[in-house]
Sequence to fold (628 residues):
Amino acid sequence: MVIESERAVACRGVHKSYGQGDTRVAALRGIDLEVRSGELLMLVGPSGCGKTTLISVIAGILDHDEGTCIVFGEDLKRMTRAEKTAFRGRNIGFVFQTYQLLPALSAAENVAVPLFIHGVPRRSALERAATLLERMGMAEKRNALPAQLSSGQQQRVAIARSLVHEPRLIVCDEPTSALDRQTGERVMELLRAVAVAPGRSLVVVTHDVRIFHLADRIAAMDDGRIQEVSEAPERSPHPTSGVP
Amino acid sequence: MNRVAIRMLIGDRAKYIGILIGVTFASLLITQQSAIFTGLMWRTVGGIVDLPHADVWVMDKKVQYIDDIKPMPDPSLQRVRGVEGVEWAMPLYKGLLKARLPSGTFQTVNLFGIDDATLLGGPIEMVEGSLADLRKADAVIVDENGAQKKLAQVASDGRSRPLSVGDTLELNDHRAIVVGICRVSRTFQSQPVIYTTYSRATQFAPRERKLLSFVLVKARLGEDPTELARRIEERTELAALTAAEFRWKTMAYFLKYTGIPVNFGIAVTLGFLVGVIIAGQTFFNFALDNLRYFGALKAMGASGRTLVRMIVLQAAMVGLLGWCIGVGGAALLGHLARDSELAFKLPWQLLAISGGAVIVICMVSALLCIWKVLRLEPAIVFKG
Fold:
């Protein structure tokens, strides 16, 4: 039993379909899921099982059809589009599969984008970004453009960007799929080390079995449903350094 | 986010230059063609512009434009002088005559005959000699451009030299001596302009019963020229127009009865359409290419208003830069061609018009982009 203050996300009977009529496809078929505060939850399952749709709903970037999805006590369905946008800006950090770093901005500027969106003055936003990049072992690359960085470095910049505005929930979509095994593991260890904190939760969509051991719990999905939620069997101790 | 918007725009160098070229080309074409059109229109009223002392022009009622001469009987001058509010009224002869050059060739010239006593209506800028020299026997003043080109003298060795003070020419079999060179506005047909006194002009001109082309009127101090023109019309049954009205009447004639506006209108419209198509399509492609980044910004909490502001800023930036380069290019072309036959006039109103056209081009481009971005589902960012 999870007490309310420890619950970051609570989804009950969430349905989501795409298309209409004969072409209607059900992506989520009554999802019940909780994400606890301070945990790293991995959503695993085969391609097309609805993982990405579910984190899109949880992150408030996709409207669900039925059910309720409460994030930090707020029912997303009752929010207007503008309220949802503001809610995301305050509470949610994103790590995308393909990083989505703005190619014309330096690493530090990319990290600072969520702060720019919130109107934080440029200087202090860049200072905060630089501090975070330093923590990620990227201090010397802060002025580099994304094209000048390796895939692993780009993903670290993306992770720093997801953290810079100190959100309470971070959603990651296949963060290791574009990385080789060694880099992928390092990036995930780093993500776990810097992002998991009391009061902050991580939801990671993946089907990379090599990183399962970094999860606190694993939710297995198939055909739009949660099949099983289990505690991670063996988890390595968290790295003490932020630098992989 | 303004800086982010600008960096996004400039960062995609190829598209940025493509959009800029579209806007610049449109701005250049619209400004340059409009300036030539305005220059041509201005040339049609050169004869009116060069007589700034006259508040009101009096003429026969059938006159349609300044070169459409319908002579009035000489007593018309006295009738106009008798109208209340007239400070002075002077006769003006204007006609096309054939000038015979010493080389034996003929050249059509625009002859102005101005009041013998006061010489009012004469050229306002003398390059050589003085206006008072017109009082000498057979004296004429020739415009600088005509003297250098169409009235140039050809020496026995075949070399050409400008018509100068002291040279003679024949006007309708009458001897005329050049006593001065003046500077005047170019005329529509680019014919040389020759000034002489009214009485001498009527001798040069072919014999006709009536020779008074126009009466130039100065309104008394405090008198409204428009009111005075209406009063002159009532009392004399002649047409009386203020200088501004006569300019518009002349330009309206050319606009209505020549193909000039249509030809230039097509060029200006093409420039506008090319601008809309090139800039609009490139800007739209820029938006499509950046859609996932706009999606990411939206997911991270950027409001619709923020994204619209970013796009408007990007459009405004290329618009302003493209307009400046286009207008600068057009002005440079005009400057380089200032000594040629090219009619080119670039008043501030044209800058405003081309600026307005560029704003429309950028607005259309930005709206396409905004439409796409605002309809964007931020969930697109998870689609790879």
About this structure: The radius of gyration of chain A is 18 Å. Residues 181-195 of chain A form the longest helix (15 residues). Chain A touches chain B through 31 residues (CB under 8 Å). The beta strands of chain A are 7-18, 25-36, 40-44, 66-71, 74-75, 92-95, 169-173, 201-205, 217-222, 225-231.
